[in-house]
Amino acid sequence: MNLSIRNIKIKRALFGLTMTAALLGTGASCSKIDDVPSTRLASEETNWKTLEDAKANLMSIYGLMRSATVADNGHWLMGDLREGDFTITNRSDLKAVVNNQLNASYPVIERVSNWRRFYAGINAASLFIERSSEILELDPRYTELNNKVDIAQARMLRAYAYFYMSRIWGDVPLITSSHDGDFIKTERTSQDRVLGFATSELLDAAQVVPFRYGGTDPIYPGLYYGGGWSSWNGNVWTRLSAYIILAHIAAWQGNYIDAATYSKFVLDNQSTQYYVDGANPLDYINMDALTENQNNYSPFAYKRATVMVGFPFEAGNGLSTANGHIEQLTLASPFIPKSKPEMFVSKDSIINIFTDPKDLRFSKDLVSGYYRTNYFYGFDSELPIFNKIKVLYPSQTSGNVTLFSSSMVFSRMEEITLLRAEALAALGDIDGAYTALNKACNLRGIVYSTQNSPDVIKAIFDERRKELMGEGWRWYDIIRYQRLKRSNAPFAEKDGKQLTFKEFEDAGGIYWPVSQAVINANSSITQNPYWL
């Protein structure tokens, strides 16, 4: 699918590419929090003076966090390749990730193993929290409510960064104040303490941020920085976003009581973003909307309320890029000028994963006799193309570079509903779990029950595997599934010894190694033991 986005100049997209490339950086070793020129958009002499400064600096935090998650396609390398469903065609660095050789000497692996990029966003958030209130006395347009809502967003983004990092590296340094470029040489903080801090920050922020910005929401009525809800939905994080992240932190910690409570709050408040204030609604979406952007509902295309937690790369805002999108790895001809994809899902895997003949994501259409192409194009070919996500800049390339505009989607309605099903199943509410599971897949043509899927936990994770394929969830879902199942079967092998999942986790194998550049710059940082 080439999404038609009219009246946009190619130079605007290239400008966005240049700016995002600058944020992504080269990954060079450095003792600074960030090796981009600055997390500020103006010098200290002119910054923190006006309403425009507040908006620019808040948006820069979103930009830095977006870059942190997708740089070198790290979101997908870390989430979809380890024990995942993708086969690599010819890139040895990607094969190393698939084979769990995460300490292999490849530049891409070294760069994504470096947590520097996340601390750039954390530092920008801390700086905003500390200094944005200075604007209140200097610009009467910047209200106290505006400032409180902005600071709450900064706290949410910082908390998200710590949760995201803790899933990757386990213990990470907890830094809660800004520093002028120099990275404090501190030890790693326990994951429990890091996640406790993130939870506390999110709970506080959730009491401040509105359900909608720039509309009729009673918490923040009226325009937000001059824009209505249709301008802001999918771009900034709402109260629902806070509770989604809280639910995931709780599930990661095995605290399914809280995970069920937080996810219920999200689903109970769907109406706050459903056909209100002139914006496309927050809703469950059918296959054509998910993969073909029917009615402009796709969470991957543009910015939408369906991007409940995530980062858009909307072409209309000049954010189309060549890097930082799964399409860079999965698409090939006829979608882009490329002979073969860098990774694909094999035919055997497709058949083993999508077993229901009524599944609209992949099955054979009984009327036409052809395989459905919603998720995979050219199933009869040697390399089926994973084309579930394919948001291209409209019929434009620059040389051999194709520009993509797909959002990095962390959560959407289907995802958080499946997480609620998981929480209910873990708590023993089997009927509730099946109800939530079927709500999540209601528009996919299949139904789960005790008759066809007696193991509800397995059914839920099977559905997450199908619905969220290519969205960066597979490895983290495997971890939570194994924690719930507590199997003693062999899970991994190290130095010729078979390890159960618990042994693998206890040794730190679920986490990535810390970049050697980080350790060289800070002698207080120790390596995850599994990778010694």
Walk me through this protein's architecture.
Strand 9 (490-494) and strand 10 (497-500) form a beta hairpin. By secondary structure, the chain is mainly alpha-helical. It is 42% helix and 7% strand. The strands form 5 sheets. Strands 1-3 form a two-stranded antiparallel ribbon. The chain has a two-stranded antiparallel ribbon with strand order 2-8. Helix 10 packs parallel to helix 15 (413-426).
Keywords:
532 residues; 42% helix
Looking across the biggest beta sheet, what order are the strands in?
Answer: 1-3
Radius of gyration: 22 Å
Largest sheet descriptor: 2 strands, antiparallel
Low-confidence stretches: 1-42, 395-399
The average pLDDT is 90
Overall geometric form: globular
Order of helices and strands: HHHEHHHHHHHHHEHEHEEEEEHHHHEEHH
Structural class based on helices, strands and sheet pairing: mainly alpha
Give the helix level as a range of percent. 40-55%
The beta-strand count equals 10
Note the beta-strand portion. Answer: 5-15%
